[in-house]
What we know:
Blueprint: H1 14-49, H2 54-124, H3 129-142, H4 149-161, H5 169-182, H6 187-201, H7 208-221, H8 226-243, H9 247-259, H10 264-284, H11 287-296, H12 300-306, H13 312-325, H14 330-336, H15 344-353, H16 355-370, H17 373-383, H18 386-422
Helix pairs in contact: 1-2, 2-4, 2-18, 3-5, 4-5, 5-6, 5-7, 5-17, 6-8, 7-9, 7-16, 7-17, 8-9, 8-10, 9-16, 10-11, 11-13, 13-15, 13-16
Amino acid sequence: MPDRPQAQPSGGNLMAEVRQDITISVRGVNELRDASAAMKDVRDSAVGLGRVNASGVETAAASTERLAKAARASTNEMTSQRYQLYDVAAGYQMLANTLTGVAGAVVKLGMDYEASFQQVIRTTGLAGKEIEEVKGQLLDMSTKVPESFQNLSGIAAFGGQLGIAKNEIAEFTKTTAQLKATTDLTLDSAGQTLAMFQTTLGVAGKDFDNVASSILKVGVNSAATETQIANVSTQIGSMAQLAGYSADQVVGLAGAMASVRIPPELSRSIITQVFGKLQKSVQEGGASLETFAKVSGHSAEEVRQAWGTNKFAGIFTDFLAGLKQSGQGATQILQDIGIKSQRTVPALLRMAQASDLVKQTMADAKSGFDDTSTLTDQYGQIAQTTSAKMEMLKNSVANLGAAFGQSTNSGIGTFATMLTTVF
């Protein structure tokens, strides 16, 4: 029987080699069977012709039997080797499938990263070195906050749609992710809130952390949730800014209104009506301005000078405290300054009864804005949890895989373009 080649099977030729070995084995078995048949013919001929004595026949028969046993043993051995080769082939096939799956996953991940960041480029107008700079910032960020690169890219793209400046996109994205991690806000709500504070109240990108910290501190210390504070802030922001409220003062007023269960839509209506009446009184003077000034404990001139500056927020808080002290006459005071709505009057009276709360939320909002440790401390605790660490580890691994995938994608893209051109 010819010796089998000793070369190791390769992935592509393995099944061909298995078939060759099986063919060799079957050929050897056939040769042994032919030899056995020939010996049997010799024995039969010898007996028939009488030219071989009895002992010679027996010897030939024994030899034939041994040869038959050897043939059967060889057949069994070759069958065993055949199945072993099948097992080897199956193992190599499994390995090949696994490697192919991993390679495909890495390439797809790279494509997903590329598609996600393309939206950032589209909405922000990044160009040249800005693209790699912001992309690098988002990749690094994904290893420090429990949000994937794709999610962070989504926030950045959303920021571009909301008008966030290119050089502030990374800061916006980081603060939005941290605000989402430390509060009950969703990514969209957190992003919309920060964008409103910038576009309406002129908050700079470097102060996004301050706004987030202010919202978080009021949410922790009051009966309002961060989502309620953010929603009311978004509703009253533009009118409060007209009266002179700063970013932290808007947060404080929103926290107070949410705490006494004034819904966002009604809060907008109330602030629009009240501040609209006060603006007219400041411009025209008269009895309504005098009444407001007297109840707040200030002169009409002080009110006029404070309107449109951040000093007015303190005067309005004083007005609510004075309204509370007026007792049964509070409703008449509101009517005297032109506030008569059946929805606005009860809401203002509730705020007046909670004037101490208003003072507290205003103070918390300011301290939270001035010192961002509220945000950093809360986020630091979350970042140390096992789930957050595992998420950030997963992001690091995904970033590495995407880097390999993207290095391959350029060749795939070129090939796809070539095929598109051909067909």
